[in-house]
Amino acid sequence: MTKNALTDALISSAIALALSVFMIGFRTTDAPGGLVLTYKIPLVISIVAVVFLGRLFLNLFWWRRPSSTKTKNRYFDILQVRWASGGISLHGITLLLAFALPLLLFVLNAKMNLGLPLRYWFDIATLVLTYIMLGWGLNIVVGMAGLLDLGYVAFYAIGAYSYALLAQHFGLSFWVCLPLAGLLAAVWGVALGFPVLRLRGDYLAIVTLAFGEIIRIVLLNWYQFTGGPDGLSGIPRPSFFGLPFKRYGDNTFHIFMGLEYSTLHRILFLYYLILILALLTYFVTNKMRRLPIGRAWEALREDEIACRSLGINTVNTKLTAFATGAMFGGLAGSFFATRQGFISPESFTFIESAIILAIVVLGGLGSQLGVVIASVVMIGGFELLRNMSWLKLLFGEDFDPSLYRMLLFGLAMVAIMVWKPRGFISSREPTILLKEKTQ
Amino acid sequence: MSDQLSWQIDPVLDVQNLTLAFGGLVAIDDLCFQSARREITAIIGPNGAGKTTVFNCLTGFYKPDRGVIALRHDDGNQYHLERMAEFRINNRASVARTFQNIRLFTGMSVLENLLVAQHQKLMKASGMTIGALLGLGGYRSREKQAIELAMHWLETTDLHYRADDLAGDLPYGDQRRLEIARAMCTQPLLLCLDEPAAGLNPKESNMLSQLLLNIKSQEKIAILLIEHDMSVVMEISDHIVVIDYGRKISDGTPMQIRNDPKVIAAYLGVDETREAVK
Amino acid sequence: MEYFAQQMINGVTLGSVYGLIAIGYTMVYGIIGMINFAHGDIFMVSAFVSLIVFIALLSIGITWIPLALLIVLIVSMAVTSVYGWTVERLAYRPLRASFRLAPLITAIGMSIVLQNYVQIVQGARVKPLPPVITGSYTLMEKDGFTVQISNMQIAIIVTTFILMIAFSALISKTSLGRCQRACEQDRTMAALLGINVDRTISLTFIMGAGLASVAGLMYLLYYGVIDFYIGFVVGIKAFTAAVLGGIGSLPGAMLGGLIIGLVETFWSAYFAIGYKDVAAFSILIIVLIFLPSGLLGKPEVEKI
User: A309 and chain B: CB distance < 8 Å anywhere?
Assistant: First the structure.
């Protein structure tokens, strides 16, 4: 046993050595006359030592313990049951929390003197909600209809640019542009989906990826129309039913409400705006799931041939899924544009699609609660990691923690998937029950 | 059965000169047969004779190279199935089928499976989704009717107590019956069953025979059956079509088929006779 | 005409690089049916390893280029293979029995990890390398326009050609190739027949990484600049090539690579360079609309 553990640890450290000796041990740096190498041999030695000792420890002590996997890892499924059951449901609590969050933070901040940067916290909450909305939108396509879409960010981009361009060229207000942007995204969803939706599985995945990239490249190159890499700036901010959030002016929000001017008003307004948009997504999706179209989506995911034998027009069914998902992506996109006030193709890269897809899969395909959990963990959690400046104390001044954020993000994606391959929530709630649940 | 050629007098399904080749392999060769309402027509033949291929042509999954598949409705309309897309064959021409290797929506509940089968009807009732989303009325009651139809078939197939279970969790025999119930929920005029008794134990196949006889007597539909279990075939079918190498070698009542030397030859593989057939 | 011929040569060179990487995608897809998103980043890592080893060799006085390149190739192949193996072991093997999307997500995760890892340990700036293989032949000369093929281009095309032949032989003649094909057909049955499936899959990743490392070295020498992002840019093109050729088919991957390389080069030469990727992706979409399983892929027949 000990001998095996030792061999295993030796092999592991040999691998660690092979992985790190060149990539970490030598660093290429610019110097006059070309690149030169700087050496970081001690780092390599310490990495190898850590791997050796860690592996040895794991072998000798940790993996020998009897595993008790049967009982653990059930929390999320219990959550799901609570989420679905009536009564004082998780729904209500989550909803209440979402609505009361700003108030809660205000009160906490004032009472406990925490000195929280409120603006920062609201921004994070808004960001998380945006991803929840996007996740719910993509969930229709991937989770329910089973169509792997790697280019979802294209619709997000279409929504954002639609709003920005409509507002700039025609002077339309946010509330007019919002449905238009959703509609445009849906139309694009149909236009892009129509020729390719008969492709199967991974072929569809690469084609959607290609579409996402095409849209981004066009945005990047069509300088006259989209501003190219410079993007579009000065996108009109939303108003509160016609009342702008401005410091000066006659008919502004704070004057109308009789409040002191604060930049937080707009931030809070945006928070509630995305909350309402996300809730719209949630309720519409949830309702659709219980309608024939939703059942047809899920049936399509289960067995396409059986669907066709039952008279379901699979092309139309797929197209509606694609268009509905695209529409919510478009709505989220317009919100993004109005929140940022500036958009450029850089915000709509493949990595965004990958993150949204990761949220859907990590949450558990088809599960709406899963999307919430995954967004909070992956977006909220890692947004907080941006502030890891305390690590500078540990690793020195030239240590840039934001670099490590994406590294950790990737590692977390791998680790969560290995830990729970079916996502946080893997159980499915039937869309109709003959008998009410007795419990 | 007063007339022994009932299927020729008033056929619901009329297949003429059906031919389909995969590359050089002729899977169906100039096949003609008819099938009548309120009758069970069995298609039998050795493995690889082309039975499932016939079904796939009937239900639109394959397009035949040649031939006519005509389905006559009561209102006098005639549908040419060889020209229709597979989903229209179900929802316009009212043909339903089951599959040799069961194709249920295993991750969905039994009841949901049966509601998906009523998609077309319910989709209209829901105002193509938009109506129901906006809260326009009418959908609830239509859904209730759909559930009633589903429950009717679950009771007929003796699965009503499992309505809320996952289809994939049912035992094999129940899954076979559920697939028939699902096909019946589309309210077909022609029901095509691809080896419904495969893998069933004697008790279950007995139950299946009863179910099919029950459907035959209750509903005004034609049933087309592919089956290897001769006891089931002989017991319940009114009309048997025997094919081998894609060709029809015999056609008649069970009694006629039982005594047809060509059929015996095809099944027992007597070489000289097979040559004679060709 | 001369311009056309020149672009042809450039396109075939680029296509060879894509093709070599595409083989890695297609092999992995063939054997475990997953898109190995991290493969492009494995290629990127290999380019970095090549760069580092090359500079290290120069600094210790090995300046005879052929020897240096040989050492670089061997070391880079070895190290990259370990990377390929590790990625498979950590991120894919635990999910072998899981559903389809799980390994796709870990693959994307691994891609993010590798990109950021290289960015951290080697910095985000582009790394330049002065031309190593120089010289060229003039093939045609007319009206002051010359058609040239550089020694580097010859080296790339010849190496790719040799590797392609060796590789096809490996897959069709050796017992490892037989094991791979058996695992492609039916993994469970292959395991029951005594094939070590895990080992076969690991070897597939190692082989894919090995080819990617050749591509990495060629890319480094040909373009002379690399950064941590080339894995994504080149990888996605190579993956497109694999799908275009029919994923799962080795000759398809090479053919797809050549087509993508040519389309990109010609589009850049005759039309707007900014839209060259749009051209490549559009070709993919158009081909898939008419041939849903790619150019040389086997059509998927689902038994009803």
Answer: yes
